[in-house]
Amino acid sequence: MSDETAIAGTSGESVRSRTVGGTETAGHTAAQREFLAELANGLEDRQLARDEETLTVYSIDQGPTVERHLPLAVVWAESVEDVQHVVRSCAAHHVPIVARGAGTGVSGGAHATEGCIVLSLERMNRILDLNPDDETAVVEPGVINAELNAAAAPHGLMYAPDPASYKMSTIGGNVATNAGGLRCAKYGVTRDSVLALDVVMADGSLMHTGHQTFKGVAGYDLTALLVGSEGTLGIVVGITVRLKYLPREVHTIAAFYQDFRNAAAGVLAVGRARVQPAIMELLDNGTLEQLDELHGGDLQKRGKSLLLIQTDGFGAAAEADVVREVLAAGGATVTTEASAEAEMLVELRRNSRGVEVDDEFRVGEDIAVPRSRLVDFVAELEAMAARFQVRLKVVAHAGDGNLHPTFWMDRVDPATDADALVRLNAALDESIRVGLEMGGTITGEHGIGQYKLRWLGLEQPEPVRELQRRIKELFDPQGILNPGKAI
Amino acid sequence: MSDETAIAGTSGESVRSRTVGGTETAGHTAAQREFLAELANGLEDRQLARDEETLTVYSIDQGPTVERHLPLAVVWAESVEDVQHVVRSCAAHHVPIVARGAGTGVSGGAHATEGCIVLSLERMNRILDLNPDDETAVVEPGVINAELNAAAAPHGLMYAPDPASYKMSTIGGNVATNAGGLRCAKYGVTRDSVLALDVVMADGSLMHTGHQTFKGVAGYDLTALLVGSEGTLGIVVGITVRLKYLPREVHTIAAFYQDFRNAAAGVLAVGRARVQPAIMELLDNGTLEQLDELHGGDLQKRGKSLLLIQTDGFGAAAEADVVREVLAAGGATVTTEASAEAEMLVELRRNSRGVEVDDEFRVGEDIAVPRSRLVDFVAELEAMAARFQVRLKVVAHAGDGNLHPTFWMDRVDPATDADALVRLNAALDESIRVGLEMGGTITGEHGIGQYKLRWLGLEQPEPVRELQRRIKELFDPQGILNPGKAI
After folding, report:
1. Which terminus has fewer CB within 10 Å in chain B: N or C?
2. Per the CB < 8 Å rule, is B372 touching A443?
3. CA dihedral for B467, B468, B471, B476, sign (positive or negative)
């Protein structure tokens, strides 16, 4: 990670940031000053910042940084028209735009690029409509995932996609990354809940895609193309989502195993019983250790791995009975008492986000493999950690075969252990290679962003990538929308 | 419907078909003869037909025809390489290709266009893989929907999307139209079950999109873009689908109403109880009459409208109890006995496909509206039928707000009732207008094909359509893939 923070002109010249406080213009080229004046002209003072502290905060999301840039300015849109104004100004001056929700992404999809504007949508946070009979809601992109759920709950409804960041992340950000979450195995990912989008295109025009109905097949599925496109094809300013029924009954089961691979096998055993849990989370010993440290529990004493399963709906109790039976048969110690403790564990898992932020001594991934390969992949990960002499911690949305392995080590002095970081990244690369070899993907739910571009070529051959570049070019001929991300 | 069957040269000249029997070349231009020779050169004799009977059979699907053309030839691909050969031959000679599964589409998506080759994929009908632990299958496009389900059932799995044509239609055709079906409200449409595609592109190259895992967000969602594109962007030659769990328990409820609008209100009542049925079919009096005629029942005596509901899974019995309770409270006569009769009715409904084929005295639609507008829309349809003096019959996948209204009349002599057909089509147009006004879509699941292009401009403004045309151009610069369809 570079400590340098430079503001670069779009014409190529780079100048050190001399912006100090407020919205002073300093250290910019004449073209940039002209652009910034035009940009500011259509906005209120509260909507634009150029002080170094703000630029720094908004220059990255929670993903690892490869090369750090400060944006020219941060703009907070408060309306669709604001977004259109920003896009038109940027288009006229060839200035890149990095749109951003809460900045909770972990792949660098919202990292500032050279000479860009960061366009924050967090203030466009109104729930415009919530129709309990249609079972739909229309929201602005800055609505927090948990807030939509809070609004839907009194109607017996929920917005299903629940990334671990659901208390902080925005629906717009979830749409940009096609976010997954804990209960995806049963309820689907973000794309499966999005019916329609309002999108500001690269020329500043407003386009509506999709339909307000559950089903609709008129023309190409532009909505699905935009979901997960990480702000590179257009800027989502309105989202119509389908809501699902809030389950009346939820049963939670905690199953402790003495061995991680047996726990992974438990996932397959539940599948073979043809029970579809809402949540099926797999935690290894390293994760239990971390949870004990953070919350003072004794999880490690009870097992070396934990499988957390939640069933929900009218059949929750009967499903939970089957789950307990097959897990016990597979050697697990299964909670049979009221599931209060297990529920608490799910909450801990849900909120473990934040301690997962990568730094240079911790590298994380988001590989998904076909479910039948879960046990093999977990075994391979353990072997890699041993071979590269690094530590391993794994949590997995196991129902989806989506693993978040983290290779890590205690902070070392590069002088005494020069190749520590090399070993760490070698383990990471190896995990990617093996995951792909098993028929997996390099990203189950976090997105490519900026960070994972290095591996995308391993998953997608050149013609597939070229086709995507041409789609990008069609939507954004100038290449101003979040350049250098996603594809 | 025109009785004319013409074979047209790609250079514009049109000749009457003089092709008689076998694979004789007659009545073609020199360029066409050269193309046909090249095409035949890479195929076995059994794979190509040019006799008039075959050309006629393969010139249309089950959709209404606007302008009928015979193809130059029908080709049956038996491998990916065959498809590549056909596409390359057609690309070299600028010959349009209409790919086709079982031809059960009802929007004319597989109607032959002028001077085209019809490429049948029905012989590519192998299930290449079915992995019970991965809960996925890989199939060739010609696999019949019901056959995949038959193969999956012994493993406790099912392929969820179940269009009424499921005993005849192919998975490839289902993918081309993003087919819906009866149990979509709970299990999603085709797109929600498709994980990956193998696609022959317009230049004959083979591309792989998507992922073998349940989740995957690497790059743009090309898979979703291709699903529902009706063979206009590429020819799907392989499909990886996610399978769902075959429910162990199914409960079926038949609820008779004396009034269609009350039955529609029952759909909302079930929704308000936050019960998610697998199937929720609404049948009006006209449909009951038809079923009685076909099967000799007494449905009409029992009510003027029927709501058929199926709950499934571990909670099926408890869900069925709630459904019965809310429907009875809404004035329905609800079956309380063992649901054998209700199940039989669902089977009748499932297999009512075939009698629904439109002709000039029967025009059908596929409108979907937001669920809250179901009752209003049904009331409007009844008013339209009265106003235009035509008869009405409606079945609806009511859980999705997706209606199949049919306006019809007994065969009339145009000499005595000159404006009969005008009234019929006026009612149809009016139903489209009102459906759109209510926030609906012109097609919930059948696709635009050729027939619904006339209304697409009412739903999608020009910039959205232009964007789709440009995507089409990007995938298919020559415009040889199913031209004049879908967008």
Report:
1. N
2. no
3. negative
